[in-house]
Amino acid sequence: MRATKKVYRSFLVYGALGAVGFLFLFPGIYGVLVSFKLNREIFIWPPAILPRLWSLEGYVEILSQPKYIRYFFNAFLISTFTSFVCVILGSLGGYGISRFRIPAKGILMLGIIALMMFPGPILMIPYVRLSKALHLYDTYLALVMVNSGFSLPIAIWLLKTFFDSIPPAIEEAALIDGCTRLKALIYVIGPLARAGVIAIFAFAFLRTWNEFMFAMILTKGPERAPISVGLASFFTSYNVHWNAIMATTGLSIIPLMIIFIFLQRYIISGITGGAVK
Amino acid sequence: MSLFRSLVRRYKEKYDLVGILFIGPPIIYLFLIIIYPLITIFPASFQEYVPSSQSFVFVGLKQFQRLFADKLFWLSIKTTFVFAGFTVILHLLLAWALALLLNTRWWPSWRVRNLFRAVLLFPWIFSPAACALLWGILYHPRGFLSYFSQQLLHTRIGFLSDPKVALWSVLLVNGWNWYPFYMIILLGGLQSIDRSLYESSEIDGANRFQSFFHITLPLMTPLMMMIVIIDFIGTFIVFDLVWIMTKGGPLRTTYLISFFLYEKGLMTYKLGYASAVSVFMALFLSAFVAVYLILYLRRSKV
């Protein structure tokens, strides 16, 4: 009797959890299902959740256009380089703050926290003007610079907290053996702060991949624009079908899903390890 | 030259010279990419751009006078306040409910809990562009939510076309996209509360509600205020999601301050005027940043 009550209760609990989870994921699930629908059955009335006939029509429509492949390639390139810049400069800054006596360190740290919350859009005009003046308009470099600039404060901060947790005695041994500070950072401390480095890489990649506004104002077409701009262009275009739109949306999530599934722990530490903690 | 040397010596006594080599590159980088462009908007806001000669003329405070007399500016400010305020409330409600759910002790196992946490975290990885599209098909006149509204309310709601509804439709999407971020922060805060506090209050005969209002809430208030500030700043300047979904329409009911900035600066090239908007936003939001820093200093001292 007691056992059946327990089974009944856990059934209820799992049922409730499943329902809540389904509700929160529904837009994503429905998007994936639409991507497998035939174009003619997307807007049937009343709407159906499952495709009647599973098809790859949408995927074929998108993948047959080199323009969209290019959007993905651009996003991948910009995000990867941004992540590298954040890891390199973030390690230098985090290590510098964590280990050395530096003038005005308190103010510097407050400044970095303030920059984490920096309202990016107020710089849209200077960015467009400067990028045109420096011939950086519509280049990968401009987007890498802007995106890494906005992710760098978090990178410095998070890596500083990681370095703080590593006892200085560890690199002192290496320094006595004739290692320079930089080499100690790269070969001794860096690997020990691996979790922080991975978190920053994942965090910067995710942010840059998803970033839209700077990508829109600093590029002029599919040549250099990342996939976020490609996706946004769908919203008002009437010549692309919704199954193809959902197919592209789904494909644009895949890299982030891989990062999310494997590096979830690091991303969570990246969120909670920011300025609020 | 000797003055320089003595300065270096005095510096060496107090600080590490190598430290500068480490923090130098990232600081210069941040200066070039964020601080310098930020500085340029201030002089630009006192000038007027003349497109015919591509030059700037000094006009004093005229841009600000025009800005404060601009009805469209005040409309966008009002809309932005409504949008940011209610987004913060929605985020807090969702984040609190779900963080408390994840923090309860009745989870069958850690594995189930972590799986559920991953499910709830998932909407956060969608880009604003992807969110706009995923919800765009749900809000479509022939989509799911229209169907439901017809069945339940006997009227088809134009989620993105009805001026009374559009802002709330977009707000819901923004809530869905960003609640996981705040949920994770609140969950981290809840987990850092000392368990023994609850145990001793239980012994004293406090029920769950009492221990929530007398232990959890007071301890979480500083963290919650920091979340409110981060969220308010982030939503106040939001551009991407709303721009993709509505472009400010219908009838400018979703016209935010960032659209005003974009329209003046990059569509009609009133560079001085738009710089004044940027300056206004920078000064207004820096007050929030200052409060945040004070809260941060207080929190890290405790």
From TrEMBL, chain A:
Keywords: Cell membrane, Membrane, Transmembrane, Transmembrane helix, Transport. It is a multi-pass membrane protein. The keyword Nucleus does not apply. It comes from the Bacteria. This is Carbohydrate ABC transporter permease. It is found in: Cell membrane. Its main location: membrane. The lineage of its organism: Bacteria, Candidatus Aerophobota. Belongs to the binding-protein-dependent transport system permease family. InterPro entries: BP-dep_ABC_trans_perm, MetI-like, MetI-like_sf. It holds the Pfam family BPD_transp_1. One of its GO terms (cellular component) is plasma membrane. SUPFAM superfamilies: MetI-like (SSF161098). PANTHER family: INNER MEMBRANE ABC TRANSPORTER PERMEASE PROTEIN YCJP (PTHR32243:SF18), MALTOSE TRANSPORT SYSTEM PERMEASE-RELATED (PTHR32243). It comes from Aerophobetes bacterium. Residues 72-263 form the ABC transmembrane type-1 domain. The keyword Oxidoreductase does not apply. GO terms for biological process: transmembrane transport. The chain crosses the membrane at residues 12-33, 71-95, 107-128, 140-163, 184-206, 240-263.
